[in-house]
Design a protein that fits this description.
Elements lengths: L3 E4 L4 H7 L6 E4 L27 H9 L7 E4 L5 H8 L3 E5 L3 H12 L13 E2 L7 E2 L17 H15 L2 E4 L7 H10 L3 E4 L21 H11 L5 E3 L9 H14 L3 E6 L9 H4 L4 E6 L1
């Protein structure tokens, strides 16, 4: 089976390196020029103020050149790819990097309209379908707790994604059944589309590049190995490339991690890395920080 990866010119070098020892091919789709709300030269989702379907015509033009296609896997952000797959007569599977737990809880909160009742964004709400779980409005996108406005661009985008997901052939998640058995079984017995696990992708064998010299293992890998040898568990803390964490939120996370007394690996952006004086010294035995970007 031939595999074709669609990406943008700015992301091609990274993708090409990742696929260097495979038979997969790559097709570029440049972002359209002069689109309102999209800065010139943008090539990746984390740099966009919103995902824009304006690239759909170019995507379909490239797609038509490689027909017939058996199926497509696209990120859940790219809701419009379902339209393209339907147009050319093949199934679209949606991919999400979130856990199935997050999807189940979000769906339950949305269906039961649990965010419309609390007066405070910090008020604990019992998830009706999962009574042991409590959430707050702050745990979700603000637009989910506001009355639906059909003229709101972000609201429409969110609605399009949900509709597209529900009509897709399948739902692929970066998780594994043994870790989320309850959530996966619950979803597949009561919801659609069906979920398949393909993770954890972090355990996939990394490409071997013979031309690259052997590099020394990063300090955080050595630290994790030490904790493994000691029989200690480690809490991994990261919020992805798109979430914007305020200084106050970083402060509260730092306080919580310090008071928890657990070992933790915290990934933060370099611009967010200024923590309170003496913090790293106080937690140095339990903490390994990785600064990125």
């Amino acid at each position: 089976m031939a595999v074709i990866v669609f990406t943008t010119p700015g992301n091609r070098p990274f993708i090409a390196k990742s696929l260097a020892d495979t038979s997969a091919s790559i097709l570029d789709i440049p972002y359209p020029e002069n689109i309102p709300g999209i800065p010139t030269g943008v090539n990746s989702i984390d740099a966009l103020p919103s995902i824009h379907e304006a690239m759909q015509p170019e995507f379909e033009r490239k797609l038509q050149s490689v027909l017939p296609v058996s199926f497509m896997v696209s990120n859940w952000f790219l809701w419009w790819t379902l339209e393209s797959a339907t147009k050319f007569g093949f199934p679209r599977l949606m991919f999400s990097s979130m856990s199935q737990y997050a999807s189940c809880v979000s769906k339950a909160v949305s269906v039961d309209r649990l965010l419309s009742g609390p007066e405070s964004d910090d008020e604990l709400i019992t998830v009706t379908q999962f009574p042991r779980i409590k959430v707050t409005s702050n745990d979700f996108d603000p637009k989910l707790s506001k009355p639906a406005d059909p003229n709101n661009t972000k609201m429409k985008l969110s609605r399009d994604r949900v509709i597209s997901a529900s009509k897709s052939y399948g739902y692929i998640v970066n998780s594994f059944y043994e870790m989320e058995k309850f959530c996966i079984d619950r979803w597949n017995s009561e919801e659609r589309p069906k979920v398949w696990c393909v993770g954890p992708l972090c355990l996939a064998e990394p490409p071997k590049f013979e031309h690259e010299p052997q590099k020394e293992r990063p300090s955080w890998i050595k630290w994790l190995d030490e904790k493994l040898d000691q029989g200690c568990s480690v809490l991994y803390v990261a919020f992805g490339s798109q979430a914007e964490i305020s200084s106050e939120q970083l402060k509260q996370i730092a306080i919580g991690l310090e008071q928890s007394k657990v070992n933790f690996l915290w990934v933060i952006r370099k611009k967010e890395s200024e923590l309170c004086d003496g913090y790293e010294e106080r937690v140095k035995e339990r903490h390994c920080g990785e600064r990125v970007g």
